[in-house]
Amino acid sequence: MASLLILERFLPYRLSVASNAVSARISGTYRKRFGLNIAEWRLIAILAESSRQTPALLCEATQMDKIAVSRAAAALVERSLVTIDNNPFDGRSHFLSLTNDGRALYNEIAPLALTTEADLFGILTREERAKLDELLRRVEAAAK
Amino acid sequence: MASLLILERFLPYRLSVASNAVSARISGTYRKRFGLNIAEWRLIAILAESSRQTPALLCEATQMDKIAVSRAAAALVERSLVTIDNNPFDGRSHFLSLTNDGRALYNEIAPLALTTEADLFGILTREERAKLDELLRRVEAAAK
DNA sequence: CAGAAATAGTTGCACTTGTAACTAAATCTA
DNA sequence: TAGATTTAGTTACAAGTGCAACTATTTCTG
Asked: What is the pTM of this model?
């Protein structure tokens, strides 16, 4: 019987393979040069955009679950890249912010991240990048 | 300092989030209904297309490393879904093939996989799906 | 306002995954 | 052709990840 399904043309497979290839490149750089994994990097990126976030808001912003956020935050606090302040509105929660060291690290990484993005996606035109972004958002929404 | 890098618009992030959302849906189905993880599923899919492959060829065809292939193959052999024959051309290697049970399982899963793909990607037009496939292949090539 | 239910975040434990070292066989080289 | 090098695949151990259970606090309900 001939297969109806060709792995090579199966979109979930193509998506996974492309994502893994990109992640491998990026996480390699972050880990080697800065000792960060992707979860830690995402937290730093969000806190650089808007500091003083609760873990729950970071879950939302990074699309990671609360365990991943909790562990990444603990590692960053341990390295004094992030500090904890208590949340006067809710004693179960707290606020996380970048320290000066954390911001300095971000200022080092961010340009490198943009360069890497340009390396990987610069082969697409501006319109193609916009289209890819749009298609990925729609697929993501359909998967939830 | 205002951020130059907005995580929300960072393509490696968008790609990873979309891929994770799709993989979560798919792997949930395979595991619950058939007890397969994604690596095992990929091996079955390739062996259904063209049986009698060596592990090295399966690495190439599935884009997985040799450890992942070795472990997935061991699990499938254990469940009698795959058999091993020796390779007369190279004593270090061997051939893997689907058993009748393996093919029967494939025949059950394949239609379901196509249905799931249609659920997730059916929100895109045919042209958009083709464009997504093309863009993903180009990005993947750039990342290697 | 007391007790029940829900929520925020963390931790323990089992399972998965990745890196490095290993075995066995083939190939290269002098 | 003996010895060194490379290659195919597996295994052992460490690190990462996810689920379930847990603590502490808040919110709901009668």
From this structure: 0.91
